[in-house]
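pinned: reference chain
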Amino acid sequence: MSRDYVEAKALEALKVAEGDKRRAARILQAWAEEDGRLKSALVRPFFANLCGFAVQRAAARAARPARAKPASGRPALDAVIQALGGGKRVEVDPGPVADEGPASVKHQRTLKVLAQAYKKRPNR
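pinned: its structure tokens
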């Protein structure tokens, strides 16, 4: 029954959103915040996995050693701020120069995919 209730509400949200799936999902989410029965029916199939994930994350965080913070927090940033405040010139090491050779085939393919995805995105 709860599956039927969720499906009916999802279809109703799609109708209200005039077929826009993202908008329908946001509408369904808003309804679930107000309707405990709907929220429970939506979450029920995933509840065991959510609990397992919460326990796994907590165990991983507990097993991690505590990180010691540096004495001054951000020494490089502190040095820049101090130099800017005193009018001193700051030398920043940009690191090693990248290889000037051609990009790998994999890199070229990745850039093409990113460019195509950027072209396809809706205008804002």
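why pinned: DSSP finds six helices and no strands in the chain. The longest helix spans residues 47-63.
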